[in-house]
Amino acid sequence: MAVISTNDFHNGLTIELDGTVYQVVDFQHSKTGRGGAFVRSKLKNVEDGGVIEKTFRANEKVNRAHVEQREKQYLYRDGDDYIFMDTETYEQIALSQEQLGEKIDYLKENMVLEISVYEGRPIDINLPTFVELAVAKTQPGIKGNTVSGGSKPATLESGAVVQVPLFISEGDIVKVDTRTGEYMERV
Asked: Is 60 helix (H, G, I), strand (E, B) or coil?
């Protein structure tokens, strides 16, 4: 396993501590008047999503976790499992609702995305920044509603609920930012 210095931390880096894989969410190098420098970091457990704060000595060595990115296609939901297929080998894998968390709100059948794999087991999915989803349910639009006239909740085909402008109606396709869950535009 590769070893990396805490001075080389960057957001998105995956490391292994005590047999658990973490992703660096945030870090800050600090130097006090007396004593050595240190690195304060926020680390996200890639398996359960929990976030911890940990302080390392500057130049301390940690194990880097080698996480591969593999292209997969989302096929369908089977109970609490979500089935993905490798686009090259056609091998199918299942990820649980707990592993995916809120990301299930943006999954659409036949969507191609990348899955993070550590030691042969899938640990996370990487959604595209924007997804286009149909509006399944919302209040009807009223004549005279404009783009800047306010917003209303809309349930999308994936089950996500987002705030949309008043002129959006059922059946419209909308673009949503998967990082924030915000409506971007009507497609």
From this structure: coil
What is residue 134's three-state secondary structure? strand
Edge-to-edge strand list for the sheet holding 14-17: 3-5, 61-64, 14-17, 20-31, 37-45, 51-57
Question: By three-state DSSP, how is residue 6 classified?
Answer: helix
C-alpha closest to that of 102 among 159, 157, 44, 47: 159
Look at the chain and count its residues.
Answer: 187
For the entire predicted model, the pTM comes to 0.70
Tens of pLDDT, residue by residue over 21-64, are 898 888 998 887 777 889 999 998 887 778 899 999 988 999 99
Contact 133, 118 (CB under 8 A): no
